[in-house]
Amino acid sequence: MPAQHPATPIPRRNLLKLLAAGALAGLGLAGLVRQALAAGSGPQRRQGIFRLEGEATFNGKSLKVGDVPTLPLTVLTGPKTLLVFVVGADAYLLRSNSHLILGANDAKTPNRAASIKLLAGKLLSVFEKGERNLSTVTAVAGIRGTGIYMESEPDRSYLCLCYGHARIGPVDAPGAAEMLRTTHHESPRWVFRDRMEPAQVINHSDEELILLESLTGRLPPFHNQWGYGDGILNDPAEKRY
Fold it and tell me: What backbone phi and psi angles, to 5 degrees, belong to 63?
């Protein structure tokens, strides 16, 4: 049975400040998101680094929560790192030992990375409407406003189109690409350089997607569905570095 909403929700304008400060660390992310939605106010868009645990560099420099990175951007994370940041209307959750490159925007799309390259590690991201080119060492994807989770290893990648539309395929076998349309994690794939295989949903949660979308002023299509269990950002026992 889905959990009940708290009787006294925290106003959303205060919720994000408390989250960033770690003041609500004892409350699971699922509970925080429920409170935010029950507050009756819409998501609020923000920019820059929202959460940083561990070590990360942005174009070779160290930044802190509240700082706003600019494109083009190369992000490297260290061990046991959890990073959440927003650029334009796109939000990213990057885990430990990751190497992410966000390409420069063009004149028609200010503050929007036209290309997203995950050379190593794990990335959950949500995007506003518009075309993007994503890639890993072994996979390529073309999307149009969606939520997607990726893991990049030297010999294979994991891609889960959480919701939206995308064309996903191996870098060395364009004919094996698939056009996917999902609403709730229906078609995860292992992507090798020359083939793809069905996969299970791993290492990312609906609560994380709700948080990322809320930081961009949006909500995912499943936001009114509950019962997922606590998320990971505020529960040390469940952190997926």
Answer: -125, 170
